[in-house]
Amino acid sequence: MTPFLELRDVKTHFPVEHGLVFRKRVGTVRAVDGVSLALRQGEILGLVGESGCGKSTLGRTILQLLPASEGTVVLGGRSLTALRGAELRSARADFQMIFQDPYASLNPRMTVFDTLAEAIRAHHAVPAGELPARVAALMEKVGLAPRYQRKYPHEFSGGQRQRIAIARALAVEPKLIVADEPVSALDVSIQAQIINLLAKLSREMGLTLVFISHDLSVVRHIADRIAVMYLGKIIELGPAAAVFDHPLHPYTQALVSAVPVPDPAREKLRQRVVLAGDPPSPLNPPSGCAFHPRCRFAVEACKATGPALEEISPGRDVACLRARELQAGS
Amino acid sequence: MPLLEVANLRAYFHTRNGIVRAVDGVSFSVEKGETLGIVGESGSGKSVTCYSLMGLIPKPPGRIESGTARFDGADLLTMGETELNQIRGKRIAMIFQDPMTSLNPYLRIEEQLIEPLLIHEKMPRAEAVKRAIRALEEVGVPDAARRIRSHPHEFSGGMRQRVMIAMALITQPDLLIADEPTTALDVTVQAQILDLIARLQRERGMAVIWISHDLGVVASFCQRVLVMYAGRVVESGRVEDIFARPLHPYNRALQRSIPALQGKGAELYTIPGLPPDVSKPLPACAFADRCEFAQPECRTDEVVLKEVEPGHASACVRVQRGELKL
Ligand SMILES: Nc1ncnc2c1ncn2[C@@H]1O[C@H](COP(=O)(O)OP(=O)(O)OP(=O)(O)O)[C@@H](O)[C@H]1O
Ligand SMILES: Nc1ncnc2c1ncn2[C@@H]1O[C@H](COP(=O)(O)OP(=O)(O)OP(=O)(O)O)[C@@H](O)[C@H]1O
Ligand code: SF4
Ligand code: SF4
Ligand SMILES: [Mg+2]
Ligand SMILES: [Mg+2]
Fold first, then answer.
1. In angstroms, what is the span from residue B44 Cα to ligand 6's centroid?
2. In degrees rounded to 5, what are phi and psi of residue A238?
């Protein structure tokens, strides 16, 4: 099977500069540092991990909103990293991003109708007479009443705005969507509605989805596979339910144990694996396994050798020197 | 006396498409040291409620139509701008849902963090910077001494949110209003921040109003909860009761929508129909169009929030009459 979306050793680095007039490069933030992944068409990949670990940067790099410093992104057999100018613009019809922050991504001077009509017409020739019906249909899809068409973004609540942003992304009928925290600002019922919608689009239309979220229970529900990132690298990859229910990497274990459960009685009894120490600085990452200063299983070897992502049982990839041993012991 | 007592708050927007009754008769109180959660439908008026308390709704088109909000005895809704300024940003701090409205993209984080210390506490600059670095460290920003010199765009979404939390806590407020404060945070950092806030509550008796769609966090962190729908409080009570024994059909439907409690990959439960348009006339119970238990009287009988069990109130007339067991 040839994958629909393939990342080969993708790196995205940001220079850190100092000085006002003569900017001097003083270091590099390795926001994404060697990510390889393959997704089949219609697959939903959940991308999780600590804040600042590079999820948004990876998402933007996939969609060519940020240039990759190294590596290639291949979509439907075509290398996106090689595209320039007009070619890239026309390829853009195939992929869309839903941003973490809908405030920043909507034009404050355009009504909902204008925003959606513009998106629909950007990539498809639609007769003006058909636009109102198309816009209304899009709005209903995301749970917004079409009567809101003439309103401006500031007249909406946070959750309503996120739904406008989602409707806009769906307007071009993209093949790939990178959704960055798409439902965090929504109440659970609308969250459920959007999740049902995205799942249906992937099932029925073959939409491929990279779903970035801190809400592990949402990711577990919607994703086929979960990729866990730590400091710019994928450290665990596997089927969603398996990773969530039986995490193998010590970091994933800590992450899963910290998920709050919506049950006050159970909350009081819960055991958390508390992560010792501070999140690492991406400017100056720890040697060897980047997780070692906070890992309760760390041994001397972890300080020296950075473990590679390896398949340790069918479909389960883990980057931990002690993964096999820990799996056997549990 | 509660630290904050809000009675009959109404905040409307007078727009060219009609009057949006964003907050329509909301009453609640917050005790010193307490954590009050506010949950509810997107667009139900949670943010506008808090903006109203802080005098931050845009006027026009916004207007406070009625109500009082007594903070330590003084009414926030009628006090003068100078008096309010002294309370706001010092004794009451707010973490906004929208990170970019409260962070200035052109200023280094450092300037933004120390500003309230220079203004409200007249602290010398060097000391303020030290305190700011410590505040960043407390919310888990690695390498704080260096990163305090960055601009907001150099931070990830979650890191920006931590900066806002640090900014809100830096003046040691008596009341913290947090609007979706941890949506961009991973669960381990979230746990760390919840611990930090809980500690400040124990040590200094800080009260917290916590608006969130994350019912897991609300369950673990809040003592009492308000459930809002269409600008009104439809249920309120102790957190255990809100989750274990819903007394309003909207709250019950909300609980049923939680993905964690449903089978993987299954079609998730959603509430049928669309959220109500609060600029149009609504039935007496605004949930009636979507409620599976609705009866004709629900559209006409006067709806008021009433205590149904000790400390647990509902605005459902059928529950109040004892006709419904949810
Ligand atoms: N400036 C404004 N002009 C007109 N209407 C507004 C304005 N600000 C908010 N509204 C409306 O007021 C209502 C309440 O909005 P609010 O932001 O309080 O919702 P919320 O409960 O915080 O929702 P969310 O969970 O999505 O953040 C919504 O119907 C919204 O569209
Ligand atoms: N324009 C930039 N310049 C410098 N550093 C940046 C820039 N954008 C991101 N970074 C850094 O790159 C790292 C990864 O950021 P990214 O936004 O991808 O994180 P994230 O995983 O999406 O986090 P969050 O969950 O908080 O949104 C962070 O350390 C961030 O500070
Ligand atoms: S390699 Fe070592 S430090 Fe890293 S996760 Fe595994 S045991 Fe922990
Ligand atoms: S009052 Fe009637 S319509 Fe409203 S929630 Fe109760 S049963 Fe449903
Ligand atoms: Mg991000
Ligand atoms: Mg809000």
1. 8
2. 180, 180
Q: What's the CA gap between A166 and A153, in Å, rounded?
A: 13
Query: How far, in whole angstroms, is CA B276 from its chain's centroid?
Result: 20
Instruction: Considering only the beta carbons, identify the residue of B13, B42, B216 that sits closest to A261.
Output: B216
Atom 13 of ligand 1, nearest CA residue: B22
User: What ligand is nearest to the CA atom of residue A51?
Assistant: 2
- Domain range for A251 is 5-329
Query: Measured between alpha carbons, how far is residue B221 from residues A180, A258, B186 in Å?
Result: 26, 13, 16
Residue A173 maps to which CATH number?
Answer: 3.40.50.300
Q: Does A143 touch chain B (CB under 8 A)?
A: yes
Q: What is the pLDDT of residue A1?
A: 65
The answer to whether the CB of A152 is under 6 A from ligand 2 is no
Q: Which atom of ligand 2 is nearest to the CA of A54?
A: 18
User: Which of B11-25, B149-163, B270-284: highest mean pLDDT?
Assistant: B11-25
For B11, the 3-state DSSP assignment is strand
Q: How many angstroms separate the alpha carbon of residue B232 from the centre of ligand 4?
A: 14
CA-angle at A15, arms to A10 and A21, nearest 5°: 155
CA B247, chain centre distance (Å): 21
- Dihedral (Cα; A40, A46, A52, A54), 10-degree rounding: 0
- For B88, which DSSP code? B
Tell me which residue of B148, B169, B173 sits closest to B159, measured CA to CA. B148
Mean pLDDT, to the nearest integer, of A14-23? 69
Q: Is A265 on the interface with B (CB under 8 A)?
A: yes
User: Which of A302, A305, A310, A312 has most ligand 3 atoms within 8 Å of its beta carbon, as the pocket-test mutant?
Assistant: A302
Averaged over B236-262, what is the pLDDT? 92
- Domain count along chain A: 1
Q: Whose CA is nearest to atom 29 of ligand 2?
A: A52
With a pLDDT cut of 70, the percent of chain B lying above it is 98
- DSSP letter at A327? H
